[in-house]
Each structure stands twice: as structure tokens, then as C-alpha cells.
Design brief:
heterodimer; A: alpha/beta; D-Maltodextrin-Binding Protein, domain 2; 14 helices; 5 strands; about 65% helix; globular; B: alpha/beta; Rossmann fold; Alpha-Beta Plaits; about 35% helix
């Protein structure tokens, strides 16, 4: 029985050996000791709290100019005056933040996309529209009722939204999709090239008449094939099982995803351009992806970060992709409406690609 | 590299022979267009790398020193990939046959033995039906049988008119395959010519290895041994002695007599015909395998 117990001398040496092997790997040390506190600091900063966020209430511009047929028919001047006084009372309440929309359609879209927590509409009868699934909507309802005073509740109809799009999962899903496109793009190229370089297969190909452009094209093509499968699986699951909306046209959406894939393929190529080993590329890609996992609005909006760094965050390729994906899926935006995000992604495709070609280490 | 002049005639096999670090790989990689020389000119098949790199690449086959091919693909799939890079080449089946991998055509690279992997590399070099073959240490790490199979493939290539330039640190390889051997050490050429002429320049009839029994080595003195008839050079290698001898019969006789005189008991006495290894030792004082 005793021969199964550990022996002291060898335990000491084994432990020492293990510890030395570990601490002499800078990457391992980073992940275990440096990364967790940094992550805690960054997330803690973003989620600092302080005062509770105000509820964002959407209203359609007064005078009913764009509010739809029902309000132009509304003969009751008192109703409109009442509406104006509600808006004034809402604005006066510091727990409520009023956002004005020019048309009813815009306001509805904003509610569906989770950009506002509830709408107060001066239709007949006047209406509070919200999605009861969201906790923010419940808070908004209570605050609106308080702001408007107890006398008005009977006259305020509460209309519950049934169309999806403002739940957390509706926010999260496009972010996850973007993150997946990024991950697959960076890893499939980075890993494959680093592996070929480490095996000296790249060098072996260099002595043949193979064109360099053929080599690169093969990566792009195979990536596109994997992308098709990836999209079908992930988006299929999101749309059919989780009921996440996909409101843009399929063509628009697919082109957007393809552009995203190209973008990260180029970045992956740049990342691996001079890296010699699998360990090396693994380190580089983690450094590249980490800020984007945290700051690109995958799990929570980058608006939680200080105003000062938000422009930097929005310039990141994953942020651009996520913003465009969200707009496409939740708000139904077509490609043309995502011009700023597409431009950012384009820059992150073209510059890394040409730089990579320049510095690529073949041998 | 320090002043290398090299000429390889069509239809011949030239071996660069030298220990590790001699500059063999550097030389062959410059010829393959992988490295740029600091000075001098390189001409391959009548073309230079600066003027017609594509023309050269289409006509040469290369086996690099440490390529580990993609493991999850099969032998045939690997060969097909390399064949696709060339406008002209052999058909895959005949190349597989030439290297003896026909039964392994559908085996994954990860399941090949060392010798089979090396023959696959050779097949990838041969698949374009090249005029000129560059082989960098083609049999390093292989067992003798695998090594012989590789030699047979190279010999049939030259028999059909192909030209070969190979590097090696195995003298048997150079002796068997090469029409011309170029012996290198520390970036310089120290001897060249056919194996026979290079060995002949030693003017040695044979090499004698003498190992006295423990404790008896001290009774033998270098200058005394040198004075024996036909002994041209004496080297002490640990507990053994290595003699370069110009007349085997006379020397060995005198040597055995001398051993009896000083009362030395022998562990072993061996003679062999001089080899390229012996040439290398004579020129540098080191063995090929010392690196």
C-alpha cells in the first residue's frame, strides 16, 4: 500500500522542475498572473456603476407632424397639450432621458432594436409601448408613471411589444457572430501559415514555380467555404432557435459577413507574416483579439467605456463589424447605411494585406 | 563561405562532402535560389536567378534538409500538390513506382516511416521530371536499408541522364554516388575530384587501426612508429593509433615485430583501403562526424 504514496525527494524535484518550466515561459506567466487582474480592472471600470442609468424614453416630435394618421385626426387640442406637458414632465425627471424621433416609424424601430426602453406616444388613447421581457422596460414603466404623476395612469394605455429585437440575446448574438468570424479568420490563417513555416513546407514551396498569389488565394477561397458553413450553423441557430431577428436582406447580410471575413483574413495574414512557430502565432493572436473581445461591444456596449476612448474602440475592426451586424439584424439596415463601418473594415483589409505581402517571411 | 568555385557537368553527380557547419547547406541553398550570395555569380542550367528564376524553377527538383510534409494528407495527395506547381512533369503513378511507394499511395504522411517520408520528399522533387536534382542530406537519419533504397533511386536518375548535386556527411554516400566529390570544411573547399583521384592523392596503400590493450598504449611512441618502413603518418585517437601506410605488407610486418619487441598486447589490429574519411582526416585532423 505504501508504495503508492509519493516520495519526498522526487516530489521536491518534480515540483521544482514543473515550476521552472512554467515560469520560464513568458506567455504562460502573462495568462496566469497579468491577465486576470488586468481583465478585472478593465471590466470593473466599465461596470463601475454609481448612479443607476436613466431610462431612455422615446417620444415622437410634438405637433403630430410625423406621428401618423391617428394624431392628425385627433381633434382634442387638450390631448396634444397634455402630450406636450407629459414630455415636459418626463424631461424634468432626472431618472428619465427623453429621446425625440421625427417619425413614428423611427421610434418603433428604435424600440424594437433596444435603443430606447419605452415609447410614450401621444396617440388616441395615449400609449406607453414597451417590451415586457426586458427588465429595463419595467423600470421605465414605473419611472414614467411616477414622472407623469398618479393621476394619469388610467388615461395611459400600455401596449406590449411582441416583435423581438430588444432582448439581451438580440444584442449579444450579432456580437457573438462577429467574434466568431474574427476568431475563425485569424486562427485558420494564422495557425496554418505558422505551421507550414515551422515545418519548412513554405520554404519547400519557394523553390517551385508556385506563384505567391496562388498560395494566398487558396487561403481566401478555403476561408470563404468555411464561412458559408459557419454562417449557416450560427445564424441558423440564432434565427430559428433563439428567435433573433434577421431584418436585412439575405444578400446584404451575407456580403457584410464576407467583408468581415476578408478583413480578418488580411489581419491574420499580417499577424503571421513573420512568426516562426505555433506558440508565437498563438501569442500574437491572443494579444490581437483580447482588446476586441472586451472593447468591441461583443458582450456589452462599448458605451460603458469612457467617452474619451470610444472613438478608438469604434475604429477597431470587430467593433465596426459588430455595429454593422447589429444594424443589419436588429434594425434591418442595408449595406448602404453601414458606410462608416464598411469603410473602417475596408481600411483594415487593404492596409494589413499589403503590409503583410511586403514583410512576409517565406523561408 | 570563403571563395567557392564549383562546376557541375550535365549527367554527372557531384557530392559536397563535409561535416556539419562546413557550408554545404549554405552552398546548395544559394544554388537553389533560397539565399543571395554576397559576392560572385551563380548560373544554373545556363540561366541566372536574376534573369530567369522561373525557367530555373521549372527545371530543377529540390529536396530540402528538414521538410516535414503535411501529416494529415496522403502520399498521393502530397505528390499531386507538388505536381500542380509545374507545367510539365511525370505522371504520379510512375513517380510512386520509381521511389517504391506504390502500396503507400493512400497512406497518410503521419503514418510513414522515416525512410518512406524521405522517399516521398524525393518523389516530390522528381515529380516535375527535372533536369537537375538538388538533394540536401538525403539519407541523414535513415537506417542502412532505407539509405540504400535512396541511393538506388538517385542512381537510376543519373542513369537516365539527370544531373545531381547533393550534400552529405557520409563518405560511403559520396563514394557510391558521386562522379565528383568536393570536400568542404569551414566554408572552404579543401579537395575536389573524382573519389578515386582524391583518395589517390593520399598516396596511401591502406590505413591501419591499432588498439593496444589497456595500459599498453604508453609503450608506443609516435616518432618510433613513424620510423617504421612504409609508415607515412601516425595519429593517436584516444587509446588507439591510426597509421597512414604506403606499403601495407612491409609496414604491418614491421609493426607486429615492434609490438613484440616492446611487449605490447593488442586488443585489435585492422586495416582498410583508404576512404574519403581518411582524406578528410589527413587534410583537417578532424573526422567528418565531428562537425
Amino acid at each position: 500500500m505504501a508504495r503508492f504514496l509519493p516520495r519526498w525527494a522526487e516530489v521536491v524535484e518534480l515540483t521544482r522542475h514543473r515550476t521552472l518550466a512554467f515560469v520560464r515561459q513568458p506567455e504562460a506567466v502573462f495568462w496566469v498572473f497579468a491577465f486576470p487582474p488586468v481583465l478585472a480592472a478593465v471590466l470593473g471600470f466599465a461596470f463601475q456603476g454609481g448612479e443607476p442609468d436613466p431610462s431612455i424614453i422615446g417620444v415622437v416630435e410634438a405637433s403630430g407632424a410625423g406621428a401618423g394618421p391617428s394624431s392628425t385626426l385627433d381633434p382634442a387640442a387638450p390631448a396634444e397639450a397634455a402630450a406636450a406637458s407629459w414630455v415636459a414632465r418626463l424631461e424634468a425627471d432626472e431618472r428619465v432621458q427623453v429621446r425625440r424621433f421625427a417619425t413614428r416609424a423611427e421610434a418603433d424601430r428604435a424600440l424594437r432594436g433596444g435603443h430606447v426602453d419605452a415609447l410614450v406616444l401621444s396617440v388616441a388613447p395615449p400609449e406607453l409601448r414597451l417590451d415586457p421581457v426586458r427588465p429595463e422596460a419595467e423600470v421605465a414603466r414605473l419611472r414614467v408613471l411616477v414622472a407623469l404623476g398618479a393621476s394619469d395612469p388610467e388615461r395611459l394605455a400600455i401596449h406590449e411589444l411582441t416583435e423581438r429585437g430588444s432582448r439581451y440575446v438580440d444584442f449579444l448574438f450579432p456580437g457573438l457572430l462577429g467574434m466568431s468570424v474574427m476568431g475563425t479568420g485569424l486562427w485558420s490563417i494564422g495557425f496554418a501559415v505558422a505551421d507550414m513555416r515551422q515545418r519548412k513546407v513554405l520554404k519547400r514551396m519557394l523553390v517551385t514555380p508556385m506563384r505567391h498569389s496562388s498560395f494566398l488565394a487558396s487561403f481566401v477561397l478555403s476561408r470563404m467555404m468555411f464561412l458559408a458553413a459557419e454562417l449557416i450553423l450560427i445564424v441558423g441557430f440564432g434565427v430559428w432557435v433563439l428567435d433573433v431577428p434577421l431584418r436585412a436582406t439575405l444578400l446584404s447580410f451575407t456580403v457584410l459577413c464576407a467583408l468581415g471575413a476578408f478583413c480578418f483574413a488580411a489581419i491574420g495574414l499580417l499577424a503571421v507574416a513573420r512568426v516562426r512557430t505555433i506558440e508565437g502565432i498563438s501569442g500574437v493572436l491572443n494579444v490581437v483579439m483580447l482588446p476586441m473581445w472586451i472593447g468591441s461591444g461583443v458582450f456589452f456596449s462599448y458605451e460603458r467605456f469612457p467617452e474619451a476612448i470610444q472613438p478608438l474602440l469604434r475604429a477597431l475592426p470587430l467593433t465596426a463589424l459588430n455595429d454593422a451586424l447589429r444594424a443589419a439584424m436588429i434594425d434591418g439596415a442595408e449595406l448602404g447605411q453601414a458606410a462608416p463601418e464598411l469603410t473602417i473594415m475596408l481600411i483594415w483589409t487593404v492596409l494589413p494585406f499589403f503590409l503583410a505581402l511586403r514583410i512576409f517571411r517565406w523561408a | 563561405m570563403d571563395g567557392l568555385d564549383l562546376e557541375v557537368r550535365r549527367g554527372t553527380c557531384v557530392a559536397l562532402l563535409g561535416p556539419n557547419g562546413a557550408g554545404k547547406t549554405t552552398t546548395i541553398e544559394m544554388l537553389e535560389g533560397l539565399l543571395l550570395p554576397d559576392a560572385g555569380t551563380i548560373e544554373v542550367l545556363g540561366r541566372t536567378w536574376g534573369t530567369d528564376p522561373e525557367g530555373i524553377r521549372e527545371r530543377i527538383g529540390v529536396q530540402l534538409q528538414e521538410t516535414r510534409l503535411q501529416e494529415k494528407v496522403t502520399v498521393l495527395e502530397t505528390l499531386r500538390l507538388f505536381r500542380s506547381f509545374y507545367r510539365r512533369g511525370s505522371d504520379l503513378t510512375s513517380v510512386l513506382e520509381a521511389v517504391g511507394l506504390t502500396e503507400k499511395r493512400d497512406a497518410r504522411v503521419e503514418n510513414l516511416s522515416g525512410g518512406q517520408h524521405q522517399r516521398l520528399s524525393l518523389a516530390c522533387a522528381l515529380v516535375s521530371d527535372p533536369e537537375l536534382l538538388f538533394l540536401d542530406e538525403p539519407t541523414t537519419g535513415l537506417d542502412p536499408q532505407a539509405r540504400r533504397r535512396v541511393w538506388e533511386i538517385v542512381e537510376s536518375f543519373t542513369a537516365e541522364g539527370g544531373t545531381v548535386l547533393l550534400t552529405t556527411h557520409y563518405m560511403e554516400e559520396a563514394e557510391r554516388l558521386a562522379d565528383q566529390v568536393v570536400i568542404m570544411d569551414a566554408g572552404r573547399v579543401i579537395a575536389e575530384g573524382s573519389p578515386a583521384s582524391v583518395i589517390g592523392a593520399l598516396h596511401a596503400d591502406s590505413i591501419v587501426h591499432l588498439r593496444p590493450r589497456d595500459g599498453f598504449a604508453e609503450r608506443l611512441a609516435r616518432d618510433v612508429l613513424l620510423s617504421l618502413p612504409g609508415v607515412a603518418e601516425v595519429r593517436r585517437e584516444g587509446a588507439a593509433f591510426r597509421l597512414v601506410v604506403t606499403d601495407t605488407q612491409a609496414s604491418v610486418g614491421a609493426l607486429l615485430g615492434h609490438l613484440t619487441t616492446v611487449g605490447v598486447e593488442l586488443d585489435s589490429l585492422q586495416t582498410h583501403a583508404p576512404t574519403l574519411e581518411d582524406v578528410f582526416v589527413a587534410l583537417t585532423g578532424k573526422h567528418l562526424r565531428d562537425g
